Amino acid sequence: MLSRRNILGRILASLAAVPLVSVIAHAKASKKLWQPVNPSPLTFMNRARDLARLGSERGDGTPYGAVIIRDNIIVGEGWNRSHIHHDATAHAETEAIRDAAKRLGTRDLSDCQMVTNGGRPCPMCETAAYWAQIKKMWLEDGEDVVNAGGPKYGGS
Known about the structure:
The chain is of the alpha+beta class. It has helices at about 5-15, 20-30, 40-60, 80-85, 90-105, 125-130, and strands at about 65-70, 75-80, 115, 135-140, 145. The chain folds into two domains: about 1-30, no CATH class; about 35-145, Cytidine Deaminase, domain 2 (3-Layer(aba) Sandwich).
């Protein structure tokens, strides 16, 4: 005979079998993203700054944030989580790309742009943007815009 305790135990055991990372990733990707009332490069940059501040205050990593936009709508966002994930590749830009790809159900982000607060991204993040086919990156410092999302070394 099944008691409430046995039923509850079986339910909890079956839940424990589901990989926790998968559950967290799904919950993150299904969360509705903040959207600006008046979309502009400045409002998207402010969102990237807010994400950088949030992550830094929480101790997740260094203060970098990024958003992926399509048709003036934020479709992905991320901040540096390299410390909390113990992952050298968990930069703001790669986290935003991963988030957008999950939400959109594709790795092809050719109709998207990236906004990042940290100036020119590192070579790894530029390469990730290249492979995701992001067409433009808006930067807080320096050149302001990098077209075609590809790595550009040795000057402009």
